[in-house]
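Narrative of accomplishments. A recurring question from our advisory board has been how the design workflow behaves on a single, concrete structure rather than in aggregate. To address it, we present the structure tokens for one chain from the evaluation set, followed by the sequence designed for it. No filtering or post-editing was applied between the two.
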């Protein structure tokens, strides 16, 4: 009988905070930008330059801690983590080892089958990001870009409480949602503003001893994380089954090849020679300051869901999908307050908006159209100024260019034709041109009328009032 194995997983999640400037200097944190243009003596590690802590970083870190049920370390400090790497300009990273800002929290997750579980958070600490090496294979050289160096991060370290890829994804999605609702980060995995390192080991079912763990890095999508977990689990089980030892090491995942390879053997904390940073004073978070941060906590998904059900009366299915994204929830609330049509707004968000996002491979956070223009579009349809199919075409333009639909309808002459005399003459011509469909309809084939409506809409360039066209057709037939 073959042995049964259990996977044990803990995560280290790095989140880039949404501050305008870096953690210890005034340089911009904007993504992109020509290499080494968002830099100064502090973030490039020039001798004699001194770090000054960005207050907003502390507020974001504490807010995430409060939202994940952590206790806040009101007296905390920064430490230097010493290591040499080309993208690390000072040859040390400013981080927190001894007194991290948040400790002993948890988030509750819910799995597909309805199982609920609490994933414990060991700590959350603040630190600065390193730069980025850009490898040029053609020239066989590496360039270093320090734009990202000094961008503020929080590192959320979980306890080894997860047992499957499904639990890991549920935990990450919950964290991402909390952080996006707080506005502390956009958490875009593809831009690296949320990155997860997976610590994984396997052990025989029933064993209480942990196995040897490996850490897998370079994971920038939920699907890559799932694949890497499955592959690493299988790799470790194969090693154990064939009598070999799992080596504690850091591994890098190549998602294209679905393969991981060893980067380096895993160091222990003492290899980094941590000591308190002499250039930064210890941090005191007063009760009053912590109270201010607590009072600014937003309404999270659970509270929003309850309020939407009573305030807007839309189906639970709609509520769940809309509140899954802070951006969609904001658009929904703002548009509804302008046009007072919650179900119509929900239909536009869950229908056309989601369809276009999927087609363009975009995230809700990338949406640029304004609630004002969506509300105007809904009002135009409600007033019968345009019909549904024209509205969809206009929405595609609103999505891309945020045009004013009222002006656009005037400029392009898209207003719906509801002049019965004008429509009647077009319908008469359609009937004359399509004797077969007329015959089919009279022989009881109700679907034939759909074809005739379609031909009339085509003749009217989609601008006819479909209800009126139907009425006239039935009358004439």
């Amino acid at each position: 009988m073959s042995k049964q194995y259990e996977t044990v997983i803990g995560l280290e999640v790095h989140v880039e905070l949404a501050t305008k400037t870096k953690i210890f200097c005034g340089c911009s944190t904007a993504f992109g930008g020509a290499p080494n243009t968002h830099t100064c003596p502090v973030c490039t590690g020039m001798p004699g330059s001194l770090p000054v802590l960005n207050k907003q970083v502390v507020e974001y870190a504490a807010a995430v801690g409060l939202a994940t049920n952590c206790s806040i370390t009101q007296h905390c400090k920064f430490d230097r983590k010493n290591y040499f790497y080309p993208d690390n300009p000072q040859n040390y990273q400013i981080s927190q080892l001894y007194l991290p800002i948040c400790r002993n929290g948890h988030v509750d997750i819910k799995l597909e089958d309805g199982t609920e579980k609490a994933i414990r958070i060991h700590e959350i600490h603040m630190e600065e990001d390193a730069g980025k090496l850009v490898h040029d294979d053609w020239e066989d050289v590496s360039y270093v870009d320090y734009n990202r160096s000094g961008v503020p991060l929080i590192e959320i370290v979980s306890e080894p409480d997860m047992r499957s890829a499904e639990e890991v994804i549920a935990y990450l999605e919950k964290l991402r949602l909390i952080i996006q609702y707080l506005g502390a980060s956009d958490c875009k995995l593809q831009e690296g503003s949320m990155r997860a390192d997976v610590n994984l080991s396997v052990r025989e079912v029933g064993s209480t001893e942990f196995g040897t763990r490996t850490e897998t890095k370079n994971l920038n999508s939920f699907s890559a994380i799932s694949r890497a977990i499955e592959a690493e689990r299988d790799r470790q089980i194969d090693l154990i089954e064939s009598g070999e030892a799992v080596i504690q090491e850091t591994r890098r995942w190549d998602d294209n090849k679905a393969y991981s390879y060893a980067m380096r053997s895993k160091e222990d904390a003492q290899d980094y020679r941590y000591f308190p940073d002499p250039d930064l004073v210890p941090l005191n978070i007063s009760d009053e300051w912590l109270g201010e941060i607590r009072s600014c906590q937003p309404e999270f998904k659970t509270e929003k869901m309850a309020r939407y059900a009573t305030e807007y009366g839309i189906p639970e299915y709609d509520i769940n999908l809309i509140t899954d994204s802070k951006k969609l929830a904001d658009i929904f609330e703002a548009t509804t307050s302008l046009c007072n049509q919650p179900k119509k707004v929900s239909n536009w968000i869950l229908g056309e908006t989601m369809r276009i996002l999927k087609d363009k491979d975009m995230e809700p956070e990338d949406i640029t159209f304004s609630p004002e223009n969506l509300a105007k579009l809904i009002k135009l349809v409600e007033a019968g100024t345009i019909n549904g199919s024209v509205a969809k075409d206009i929405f595609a333009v609103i999505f891309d260019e945020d045009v004013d639909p009222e002006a656009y309808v005037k400029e392009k002459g898209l207003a719906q034709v509801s002049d019965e005399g004008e429509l009647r003459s077009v319908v008469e011509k359609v009937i004359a041109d399509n004797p077969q469909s007329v015959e089919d309809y009279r022989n009881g084939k109700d679907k034939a009328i759909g074809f005739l409506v379609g031909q009339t809409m085509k003749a009217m360039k989609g601008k006819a009032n479909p209800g009126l066209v139907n009425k006239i057709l039935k009358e004439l037939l």
